[in-house]
Amino acid sequence: MNFYIMTLFPEMVSNGLAESITGRAINNNLISVNTVNIRDFAGNKYGHVDDYTYGGGAGMLMQAEPVYKAYHSIIENNNLTEKKPRVIYMTPQGTPFNQAMAEGLSKEEDIILLCGHYEGIDERVLEMIVTDNVSIGDFVLTGGELPAMMIVDAVSRLVPGVLGGEDSAVYESFYDGLLEYPQYTRPEIFMGKEVPAVLLSGHHKNIEKWRYEQSLLRTKERRPDLYEKYLKNHNLKK
Ligand code: ADE
Quick check: is 87 in a domain? Predict the structure, then answer.
């Protein structure tokens, strides 16, 4: 799976994703992370890619042309003319990102992520190239780089082979809409606190039942919104 990231800060993205599990996935050729510096497409020798907004108002806006040219360089240099990959613009005005979106994106072969800066990007180029507007939450960051890295991370771990254990992407928070149950490792007693006895019993049915109950309980306490949805989807009563 190939990610193409349009940004003014390519090293921020490539250095961050070169670590840990995404770094290993890159080294194993399971994913590729290709950054394109929008500044390389500035139409002036100063490398300026921003300007004042028409109509006034605070801050600067990224201009349409460098973004448009950067996009076309990705399409042309990677033989993507036919495929027309999805172009995701990272913006607080987008659809809130979630696990279902990560799963949908993990089926794509190529994804382009567009990171804005300053006050945003000229609307005309967004209308021309963007297929999806995505937000990572109701707060405003200084740029789209961290959101883009989050998306690459969340999507990459769903690509077969990226996670070590085959099923570790299944039994986890948000699988089936519930939060994950609590987990424990050695020692059996830590500062007087014991591991729940059922987990030491070796009785797999009971362990599964306990985990399911804990998932329900935790979701009800911490994410009542998800809990209500789960009950509804499974025709369960409170
Ligand atoms: N850029 C700035 N803030 C953002 C957010 N919350 N989500 C996505 N992109 C952003």
Answer: yes
Containing structural domain, residue 72: 2-156
Q: Measured between alpha carbons, how far is 83 from 35 in angstroms, rounded to an integer?
A: 19
Is residue 179 located within the same domain as residue 140? no
Task: Note whether 186 and 197 are within 8 A (CB).
Answer: no
Smallest CA separation from ligand 1 atom 7, residue: 135
Q: Is 91 in the pocket of ligand 1 (CB under 6 A)?
A: yes
Q: What is the pLDDT of residues 142-174, one digit of tens each?
A: 999 999 999 999 999 999 999 986 556 655 677
* Residues 6+ away with beta carbon under 8 Å from 175: 169
Same domain, yes or no: 39 and 90: yes
Q: Which CATH number fits the domain that encloses residue 183?
A: 1.10.1270.20
Beta bridge partners of 52: 60
Q: Which atom of ligand 1 is nearest to the CA of 90?
A: 9
Same domain, 36 and 135: yes
Q: Are 211 and 173 in contact (CB under 8 A)?
A: no
Distance 145 CA to ligand 1 centre (A): 9
**Ligand 1 mean position to 116 CA, how many Å?**
9
Predicted confidence (pLDDT) per residue in 99-142, tens digit: 999 999 999 999 999 999 988 999 999 999 999 999 999 999 99
Count of other CB atoms within 10 angstroms of residue 16: 19
- Atom 6, ligand 1: which residue's CA is nearest? 92
Distance 142 CA to ligand 1 centre (A): 8
Residues 47 and 74 in one domain: yes
Asked if residue 213 lies in contact with residue 179, where contact means CB atoms within 8 angstroms, the answer is: no
